[in-house]
Design a protein that fits this description.
It is built from 9 helices and no strands. By secondary structure, the chain is mainly alpha-helical. The chain folds into 2 domains: 49 residues, Arc Repressor Mutant, subunit A (Orthogonal Bundle), CATH 1.10.10; 118 residues.
């Protein structure tokens, strides 16, 4: 009798990513992930009961990766005027790859019908906004953050395709916007940036 294939959670998450990259969110299913991972459907169902659970796992993994990258960039940006903002700007200097784009498209296309996915992303943004409040000029940090997110979304959706030089120039402009502008005298009401 053949031994069952040992498979880790990372193996299944890798298979989820491969299905999304190869076929898009519409083809993501427990069957497709099992086939891609070379395991039984019951093994996938053991951890992920539905397509929504597969996408939630993808979001959670992406958020963990993002958090690890931010932590690493924070070490490098510790002496900047706003380490949390500047770490995120530094990470955006690198163009997204096809896997990044496919994951974002899969999650975005599924958000309209899956409230839990939207909630997870809202929590991610709320965490980032809280980080923007940690510096001396929180209003400017939020403004710069939204410029960064707007750029990143346009790039991930394929609306713009800038050269490395253009991207780096824009990232420097975001940093300059933060450092050269004084904070507004009129403060936003508490919790005005809740998502």
């Amino acid at each position: 009798m053949a031994r069952p294939k040992k498979v880790s959670t990372d193996d299944i998450l890798d298979a989820i990513e491969r299905v999304v990259v190869k076929h898009g969110a519409s083809k993501l299913s427990i069957d497709a992930v099992a086939q891609e991972a070379g395991i039984s459907k019951s093994r996938v169902v053991l951890d992920y009961k539905s397509k929504t659970a597969l996408l939630e796992a993808l979001i959670d993994r992406d958020r963990q990766r993002d958090s690890a990258h931010i932590e690493s960039a924070l070490e490098e940006c510790g002496n900047t005027p706003h380490p949390e903002l500047f770490a995120r700007v530094k990470l955006a200097e690198q163009a997204p790859d096809d896997t990044d784009r496919a994951i974002v498209m899969a999650i975005t296309s599924s958000m309209a019908s899956e409230v839990t996915l939207k909630q997870r992303l809202k929590e991610w943004v709320a965490h980032d906004l809280q980080a923007m409040d940690s510096g001396a000029k929180p209003e400017l940090a939020r403004l710069a953050y939204f410029a960064l997110i707007g750029f990143s979304c346009h790039e991930l959706f394929g609306f713009i395709d800038w050269s490395d030089e253009q991207r780096l120039t824009f990232m420097e402009q975001i940093r300059t916007m933060y450092t050269s502008c004084p904070e507004s005298q009129q403060k936003n009401p508490q919790n005005s940036h809740q998502v």
